[in-house]
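Need residues for this backbone.
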């Protein structure tokens, strides 16, 4: 087979035309402020478009180890015009309504923002220097916005590449298993309010960024059409999709990328999952080469061979590397040749306080006799159990919370790649219970083998969450390997009455080396490697005791996809 990967747009050395503060008209009479970067050429070119509240005029000065070097046109989580424009692409950056220099009511990640993005795409496609084809590419907010505008099918939008982008605003970002992800969301709102009001932007848009966001997110704490309007609607997404995730993004974006690949109605779909920070892979030489091949194919009609290759491309983690792992291609996701194995929780002892203690094992054979282990739902800090305090979790002294289980040491290298499920029998003395799960790779020395997280810090393998009152499943969307929760009503617990909960564990990839163990922590609070994606714990936790059951009629187990060699 001929290698077509080199059939890509080349740097033609075009000078950069920069058009600042261009006003784009909207269907409702409003207007948005944008910057356009385009090559100085008579050739009509396609456009890479972005919209966000991150302010087009905020310069990003990247770290020194980025493959792309600093220049006056770098902007957070967007493409670099100095690289794309010489290859005959234009770049469009838009300040979302009510942010940056754009007037109006600010509604981040909303349906209104999607309508505005639609109008901007159709406007730029009609510019005399544009060939009529528009694509979208960017990280995080700049990826999430792609799912939402793709719902609306703008005629000129020909392909999208959501790079580490949440898709379901309820399940992916705000309510993990029904538990409010306040650590990230509240900080995000406060930080971007400050970015607008406490610095230079206030001089030209003093009324910007006034979203009633936190109240609305908490007021709508069950799923509804309110959330669906601001999330991906897979049946409407029919254009070509290259969904790009990060194994370290298990608390915000990764689920959106795997769901995007499996659920979008498009006939032309690809999935890539890599490792590393939120920004290094996007700006890497390898990452940009992949981006260029995708958009050359769909926006310029160049046969780059990208659609001839297997649709799934995964970095296979072998544990502990701070550098990228090797990629492996697959023909589907989840991987069809996976052997789905149940690892049963075997409770052996009462809760201990040692940091690395275990209360039992994970075994392939279910325990014949039933057993249980109990633990505090809240612990006690130096301020007691202060559920009315704004610092209720920061006084220190809570001690170890929850319980842990480990496999025996691996007798050979064992790959686990795919989504996971924890089936857990639980009860509480209260009317509800927070279940927070962490999967960890434990080396022969008994210490964690960490991976690189999106923010560059050490993270465990993956996590899962569920508020017990949210245990109702959407049977039509659930599979034997992945529970899908309805989140549309609360099923309260009766005190000390066991119920079965199926916890969705976000996808992971790890080759557990010979001698390593898989560890499962089940806790009432956020475990290791959670920050900044921490959660709010309601007052029903205060003073309550939670119990986990295993064996007999209450078989609790972790379902894992073990991948044999090809």
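Answer:
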């Amino acid at each position: 087979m001929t290698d077509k990967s080199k059939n890509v747009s080349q740097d033609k050395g075009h000078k950069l035309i920069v058009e600042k503060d261009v006003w784009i008209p909207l269907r409702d009479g409003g207007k948005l402020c944008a910057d356009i970067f385009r090559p100085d050429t008579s050739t009509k070119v396609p456009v890479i478009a972005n919209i966000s509240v991150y302010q087009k005029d905020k310069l990003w000065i990247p770290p020194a180890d980025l493959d792309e070097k600093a220049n006056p046109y770098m902007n957070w989580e967007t493409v670099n015009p100095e690289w794309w424009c010489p290859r005959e692409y234009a770049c469009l950056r838009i300040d979302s309504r009510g942010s940056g220099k754009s007037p109006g009511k600010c509604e981040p990640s909303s349906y209104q923002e999607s309508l505005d993005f639609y109008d901007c795409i159709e406007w730029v496609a009609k510019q005399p220097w544009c060939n009529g084809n528009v694509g979208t590419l960017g990280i995080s907010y700049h990826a999430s916005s792609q799912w939402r505008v793709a719902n609306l099918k703008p005629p000129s939008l020909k392909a999208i590449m959501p790079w580490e982008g949440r898709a379901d605003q309820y399940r992916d970002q705000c309510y993990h298993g029904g538990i409010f992800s306040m650590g990230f969301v509240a900080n995000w709102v406060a930080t971007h309010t400050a970015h607008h009001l406490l610095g230079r932007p206030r001089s030209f848009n003093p009324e910007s960024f006034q979203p009633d966001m936190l109240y609305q997110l908490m007021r709508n704490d069950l799923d509804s059409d309110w959330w669906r309007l601001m999330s991906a609607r897979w049946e409407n997404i029919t254009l070509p999709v290259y969904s790009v995730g990060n194994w370290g993004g298990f608390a915000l974006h990764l689920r959106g990328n795997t769901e995007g690949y499996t659920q979008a109605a498009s006939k032309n779909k690809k999935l890539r999952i890599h490792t590393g920070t939120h920004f290094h892979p996007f700006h890497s030489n390898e990452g940009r080469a992949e981006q260029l091949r995708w958009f050359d194919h769909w926006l310029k009609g160049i046969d780059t061979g990208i659609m001839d290759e297997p649709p799934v491309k995964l970095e296979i983690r072998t544990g502990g590397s701070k550098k990228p792992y090797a990629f492996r291609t697959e023909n589907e996701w989840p991987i069809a040749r996976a052997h789905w194995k149940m690892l049963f929780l075997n409770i052996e002892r009462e809760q201990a306080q040692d940091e690395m203690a275990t209360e039992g094992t994970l075994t392939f054979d279910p325990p014949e006799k039933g057993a249980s282990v109990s633990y505090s739902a809240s612990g006690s800090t130096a301020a007691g159990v202060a559920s009315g305090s704004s610092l209720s979790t920061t006084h220190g002294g809570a001690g170890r919370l929850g319980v842990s289980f480990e496999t025996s040491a691996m007798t050979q290298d064992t790959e686990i790649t795919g989504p996971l499920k924890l089936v857990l029998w639980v009860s509480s003395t209260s009317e509800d219970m927070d279940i927070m799960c962490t999967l960890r790779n434990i080396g022969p020395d008994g210490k964690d083998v960490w991976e690189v997280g999106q923010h560059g810090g050490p993270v465990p393998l993956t996590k899962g969450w569920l508020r017990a009152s949210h245990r109702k499943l959407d049977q039509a969307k659930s599979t034997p390997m992945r529970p899908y929760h309805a989140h549309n009503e609360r099923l309260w617990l009766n005190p000390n009455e066991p119920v079965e909960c199926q916890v969705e564990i976000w996808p992971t990839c790890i080759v557990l080396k010979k001698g390593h163990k898989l560890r499962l922590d089940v806790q009432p609070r956020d475990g290791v490697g959670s920050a900044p994606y921490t959660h709010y714990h309601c007052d029903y936790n205060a003073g309550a005791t939670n119990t986990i059951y295993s064996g007999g009629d209450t078989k609790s187990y972790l379902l894992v996809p073990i991948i044999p060699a090809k």
